[in-house]
Amino acid sequence: MDPSELNSPELQNFLNQEKQKAMVNEMIGKLTSTCWDKCVTGTPGSKFSSSESNCLTYCAQRYMDMSLLIMKRLQQ
């Protein structure tokens, strides 16, 4: 590979996309772990109870809202 190709716009764009994918995957992993630990207190059955389902929904929404707020603040 030619060293000048390392600074090509296409490569930089590809690397940025891969970084974004990795960040999204990391966020999903943290969200899943955090909300599972908070909302599923017993041994899970074949489906979630209504309280577990509601808790998981609200937990995920709050997590995403806070993550977006933090990202916006960091960009300012």
Structure summary:
With 76 residues, the protein is an all-alpha fold. It has helices at 9-39, 50-75.
Helical residues, percent: over 70%
N-to-C span: 37 Å
The overall pLDDT average reads: 87
- Rg computed from alpha carbons, rounded to a whole number of angstroms: 19 Å
Number of strands: 0
User: What's the helix count?
Assistant: 2
Instruction: Kindly name the structural category.
Output: mainly alpha
Q: Biggest β-sheet: count, sense, barrel?
A: none
Strand content: under 5%
| Low-confidence region ranges | none
Topology pattern, helix = H, strand = E: HH
Query: What is the 3D form?
Result: elongated
Domain TFIIS central: 1-34
Subunit structure: Heterohexamer.
GO biological process, one term: protein transport
Protein name: Mitochondrial import inner membrane translocase subunit
How would you explain this protein's 3D organization?
The protein is mainly α and 76 residues long. It contains two helices and no strands. α1 packs antiparallel against α2. The longest helix has 31 residues, at 9-39. It starts with 8 loop residues before the first helix and ends with a helix. The model has no long low-confidence stretch (mean pLDDT 87).
